[in-house]
Design brief:
single chain; Serine Threonine Protein Phosphatase 5, Tetratricopeptide repeat; 17 helices; 365 residues; two-stranded parallel ribbon; 2% strand; mainly alpha
């Protein structure tokens, strides 16, 4: 029995020794492989732990100014959740690239800018904007051949812009890069460009132009075999349909929106609910603008639009803003369908169909 215990102990001792030896001989590339594995598992604490280990090894083996060390700083910046640390990691990587005379640091500015904007607010967003502007300048300067990150930089800046004319300049810039340069993610980027350009024109009251962009988005979807093509098509149908309704082509607009709603009804809960709510909202407006107006349909579609919010257990400030916009559109539809009624009639109807059952409220900027 004692011999058996000694044998087991010897095996354990050798095993532990082997693990210690293996740990002591792990290089920075081994730690990077482990970090990648934990990234796939979305275990970001363990990913960062292994990146920090990789950094220690790389500093000893490659030195502070090596491109290998710069890449680890870059990966740490992509993993960090603290905006100050994100900026610090990317700045170290950028500095190494500058000292090494590397020209292709535009990607570092792009990744830094995107991460700062995604994870921060206030000054972090400002620094993120400045980083993306620097990325655009470097991409243009270096004759960058792939438009993906160049277009994405313009689109992120456009989304942050509150002035619609300045936003339009950024969107036109993204559109020009999209057509002039090669691209791997052309499907997603093209959809975003057309959607944002259409929404910009829509918000400016330029509904004919908005329709052109939404219709182009729909035509692309009809010729595509991408996995999310039906969802993109539904969005383009309701957006282009809404634009048609607002240029007094209510029957055409109604047909497009109805096609979108068929998709939303089948995939209820599997797509952004706001799109489905707005589709019903503009269908109500279409019925209001028909000759003669579909009075009962206006009421039914209005109630369906709001049901996406009234049935929720929790809502946030974005939901309330969406409901305010829905109220604005439904007021127009209601007045067209019931010209004999007063404003208080609309308010009473809207109040009756907009009572929330949500018990939780979350503030979202």
């Amino acid at each position: 029995m004692k011999k058996w215990n000694l044998f087991v102990f010897a095996i354990l001792f050798v095993g532990i020794g082997a693990l210690v030896y293996k740990g002591s001989t792990m290089g920075y590339e081994d730690y990077l492989d482990l970090a990648a594995t934990f990234h796939e598992r979305e275990d970001y604490d363990q990913e960062m732990f292994n990146l920090e280990k990789a950094l220690q090894e790389s500093l000893e083996i490659n030195g502070q100014l090596s491109l290998e060390t710069a890449d680890i700083y870059r990966r740490m910046g992509l993993c960090d959740r603290d905006t100050d640390k994100i900026a610090e990691d990317f700045d170290k990587a950028i500095l190494i690239y500058e000292i090494a005379g590397k020209k292709d640091k535009a990607d570092l500015y792009y990744e830094k800018g995107k991460r700062m904007i995604e994870n921060g607010g206030g000054r972090a967003v400002f620094l993120g904007e400045e980083s993306l502007k620097q990325a655009i300048q470097l991409y243009e300067q270096d004759g960058y051949e792939d438009s993906d990150k160049l277009c994405e930089s313009c689109l992120i800046l456009a989304n942050l812009e509150t002035d619609r004319e300045k936003q339009w300049v950024r969107l036109k810039q993204a559109e020009s890069y999209f057509w002039d340069l090669s691209k791997e993610n052309g499907w997603q980027i093209g959809n975003r460009i057309y959607r944002l350009m259409g929404i910009n024109r829509f918000q400016e009251g330029m509904y004919e132009e908005a329709f052109g962009y939404f219709d182009a988005m729909l035509i692309r979807a009809e010729d595509s075999e991408e996995k999310d093509v039906r969802q993109v098509m539904a969005e383009a149908q309701y957006l282009s349909g809404a634009a048609l309704v607002l240029v007094d082509r209510a029957e055409e607009g109604k047909k497009r929106i109805e096609q979108a709603i068929v998709f939303y009804d089948v995939h209820n809960g599997k797509q952004p609910y706001e799109d489905a709510a707005l589709a019903h909202t503009f269908l109500a407006l279409a019925y209001g603008k028909l000759e003669p107006p579909g009075k009962q349909e206006v009421l039914e579609e209005g109630e369906l639009a709001l049901s996406y919010f009234t049935e929720m257990d929790r809502i946030d400030s974005q939901d309330l803003r969406s409901m305010e916009y829905i109220k604005y559109v439904l007021r127009i539809a209601y007045k067209r369908a019931f010209p004999e009624k007063m404003e208080r009639d609309f308010e009473e109807w809207f109040y009756g169909i907009s009572q929330l059952k949500a018990s939780e409220y979350y503030f979202v900027n």
